[in-house]
Design brief:
mainly alpha; A middle domain of Talin 1; globular; 12 helices
Length: 316
């Protein structure tokens, strides 16, 4: 019976987090536009943070409960899943080309976040200096996002679309906002508890469940975005969304976890020597050839996917 409740908790958590995140992003976007905030700011700040809210809530909630392996495993594992699984799918099924000026700084910040995290955790905990640098990278990332979005908005001369503000619409989006937020929080609770129970029943460290089941579960919004982009042939959408989400995951979540834990966030030996290096490795494998060639290849996508499958096999 314990197995049933543990699996049910995980499945319910994934569904609630995914659907809650979808509703929350829609509602937050509408509210910002209805309040007169320019579309480019909405997309560059509110939506980009909201799409990573599942990872943020799950990891912070785990850190509050001293489940540090769950907190770190989810944050780092989500980036690994986003890159080596979801971005790999985009590389295999989409003809992706990039312009260096639009992606170079963001990609540098992503790789820099991974390097800082790796070096900052060598002593068994996220050091203060690393947390400060990561938060600085996050702030720079948000500023760059706004400037790029503003530049694009001006170049395309887009007019702000008038959003509906009738009573029925207002009620719908208020319900979506609070319902989505509740879904993320409750779903995160189910994920953390279900993940811990699952790990206990399997007699494996929480880290293993965190970097696999929980990390993939909280990456569902990015997976859905990528599959939608594949279907609609929006070639630039998927990679840009994943790079942005990964920067936020690495530069914001673990410093937040360290803050709520009240001390330097402990990092397990496996996390410092396996999970974080693998995360950085697949990021370099995805980003460096993309920047050099200005385009992705199916071979590159297959190599990334193979690396992820290998990592999962050895982790399990």
């Amino acid at each position: 019976m314990e197995w049933f409740w543990a699996i049910l908790s995980l499945v319910a958590g994934i569904i609630l987090v995914a659907k809650g995140g979808d509703y929350f992003v829609d509602a937050a976007s509408w509210m910002a536009k209805a309040a007169g905030i320019p579309t480019f700011i909405v997309g560059a700040t509110i939506v980009s943070i909201a799409t990573t809210l599942p990872e943020i809530i799950v990891s912070v909630m785990a850190a509050i409960e001293d489940k540090n392996e769950m907190a770190i495993g989810n944050a780092v594992g989500s980036v690994t899943a986003n890159t080596a699984m979801i971005m790999a799918i985009a590389f295999i099924f989409m003809k992706i080309t990039i312009t260096l000026k639009d992606y170079l700084l963001q990609c540098i910040m992503l790789i820099a976040s991974g390097i800082v995290l790796l070096l900052g955790c060598l002593n068994g905990a996220l050091s203060t200096w690393a947390a400060i640098i990561l938060i600085t990278i996050f702030i720079i990332h948000m500023i760059v996002n706004v400037r790029l979005a503003k530049k694009h908005n001006a170049a395309s001369k887009e007019k702000e679309a008038e959003v509906p503000k009738d009573k029925k619409t207002v009620i719908i989006y208020i319900v979506k906002f609070f319902g989505g937020a509740a879904g993320i929080v409750i779903g995160s609770r189910f994920l953390v508890d279900g993940g811990s129970d699952f790990a206990r029943l399997l007699e494996v460290p929480e880290r293993i469940i965190a970097v696999t089941v929980v990390a993939i579960g909280t990456s569902i919004p990015e997976l859905v975005t990528t599959l939608t982009a594949v279907k609609k042939k929006e070639y630039g959408l998927s990679v840009g969304n994943i790079v942005g989400a990964n920067i936020i995951d690495l530069s914001l979540i673990l410093p937040l976890c360290s803050l709520v834990s009240g001390d330097n966030l402990p990092v397990s030996v496996q996390g410092a020597q396996i999970d974080i290096p693998v995360c950085l490795g697949v990021t370099v494998l995805a980003i460096v050839p993309l920047l050099i060639r200005r385009k992705a290849s199916k071979v590159q996508g297959c190599l990334m996917l193979a690396a992820y499958v290998t990592y999962l096999i050895f982790t399990l």
